[in-house]
Amino acid sequence: GESVGLHLPTLSVQEGDNSIINCAYSNSASDYFIWYKQESGKGPQFIIDIRSNMDKRQGQRVTVLLNKTVKHLSLQIAATQPGDSAVYFCAENRAGNMLTFGGGTRLMVKP
Amino acid sequence: GAGVSQSPSNKVTEKGKDVELRCDPISGHTALYWYRQRLGQGLEFLIYFQGNSAPDKSGLPSDRFSAERTGESVSTLTIQRTQQEDSAVYLCASSYNPLPNTGELFFGEGSRLTVL
Fold this sequence. Notes:
The complex is a heterodimer.
Chain A: E1 10-14, E2 19-24, E3 32-38, E4 45-51, E5 56-58, E6 62-67, E7 72-77, E8 86-93, E9 99-101, E10 105-110
Parallel strand pairs in A: 1-10
Antiparallel strand pairs in A: 2-7, 3-4, 3-8, 5-6, 6-7, 8-9, 8-10
Chain B: E1 5-7, E2 10-13, E3 19-24, E4 31-37, E5 43-50, E6 65-69, E7 75-79, E8 88-95, E9 106-107, E10 111-115
């Protein structure tokens, strides 16, 4: 999602439910996408990545889906846990040295 | 150390002063990145170092910003004549392989800069 200054979009889910965090990317030339998780007061932490020749990639409890037609990326978290509460960023790489980060989505897990 | 180390963790300075922020990457990581994160926002790329190659400075917002790295070790980000809009968390990251080979960047906890 898009962020507007301090008002990050927030997703609130019940513990145990599945979470889906969405991201729209800007450049059709981007060929590599990464999801990062950032807990309060810490640096971002790599979760999972996907290249443009794939539509889906699975990790442990996480799945990333890529829809190149509509330039959309999503992160699915299965059986969400309180420890998953954080801000999640998608990032795109268009070749070269730079990652372009989205504005972030705050995930809040209710016990 | 086990992770990327940044110092200082917090810095409060007066407008017009110079500041230096330090990053110790993970040993053996050839790629080093600096990003800036304003409150509640995503990360903005600043500069990238890879081995002994010329750095990619394309993200530096003005000539008040500069960075150095000695070989594959410590990097210093310097902001001269700080302005209030420089207030942000400055994040350093390193990786064993550079982009686009891997997007698994290991980030430090950042240096929070507040310019009064």
